[in-house]
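Project standup — Tuesday

K.O.: blocked on the structure for the chain from last sprint. Re-posting the sequence here as requested.
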Amino acid sequence: MGLRTEKAVSPTTGEVTWLLVDEETYRPHPEAREFALYLRGAGRSPQTQRAYIPRIGRFLNWCQGRGTDWKAAALGDMTRFKFHVERTATRRGQPPSGKTVNAVLTAVCEFLRFCAVHGHVAHEVAARLSEPRLLTSTPIGFDPGEGGQHLMVKARVLKAPEIERAPSILTSPQVSEVLSAARTARDRLLLTVLVEGGLRIGEALGLRREDMHLLPDSTYLGCRTRGAHLHIRPRQDNANGARAKSGRHRVVPLAEGTVHRYRDHLSEREKAAEADACDYVFVNLTGMHVGRPMTYSNAKQIVERIGDRCGFRARPHMMRHTAATRWIRNGVAPDVVQTLLGHASSASTAVYLHAQDEDLRAAVDRVSAEAGR
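H.V.: unblocked you, prediction finished:
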């Protein structure tokens, strides 16, 4: 008898909560249910909930299989669980990366800390998971404050080593190819705001038509930002569950080509009468859900299929990585890129400062060529 992840939809509000339920009785796991409700109440995105709950279920099932009381898990038990995750192949038959292992440990540690705060487990259980460490060198984006460089921080005891790699991006020819392979004006516009505006997919799917300010002057709309742009507004009531992860409003400038593609999209959606009453920018144009706002799974499938037609891997977040990398390589200041992406910390933007393999090769070849003159 184990636990499995199930999606629970509120019959009154339609809100989604991911739960761990008993495989035989379908009775929700009480502590995991409280944690899921906490994630939702704290404004964590549905994708975060969907990622965390199966990872917690994996830990609870592992404890049950070993006869270990998860409420009294010792550091040795957590270490063995870490070994279990590291040695279990992924769906592709490959060992998990350090980042994947740490994602599982992060979810489990956060769950146990939540349980400790609410009295479900002893505080010692959560306290074992972290220890004070002296921070002698600050990472990029870390603010040491007035305490100087020698700071005591709480670090997780168990952590898998991660190999830092620059995010996967599309080349300029590949960007042109995916845009050409889009079969509708809507899909072409979606790809454009992702790859040129650097939007997260949840931010794009949450856009309303009132967020699109496409005239040179928008003062009549009560907006002082000049030039074509769009507004990312955090909303908690999106019918498709889309969320702006940062939870903060920001403005993203738009190029002239994006404005033309938006106009093409409006002309296209006029053919679907059901879409006229929907204020979302990206809606379903065909099928039984025509006129309803697009969901994350629908948009993800569209981007992946376009990549398949082009013969290479394409994912929504790759478009955001591509936009950020382009800006950095073209000399845009990191703080400007941080603002465009909506990052709360410069440490999140710093990943785009890592040199790509081709950058390293070009540097060596350039110096070698100059030395041979």
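K.O.: great, moving the ticket to review. The first strand starts at residue 3 and ends at 9. The chain has a mean pLDDT of 87.
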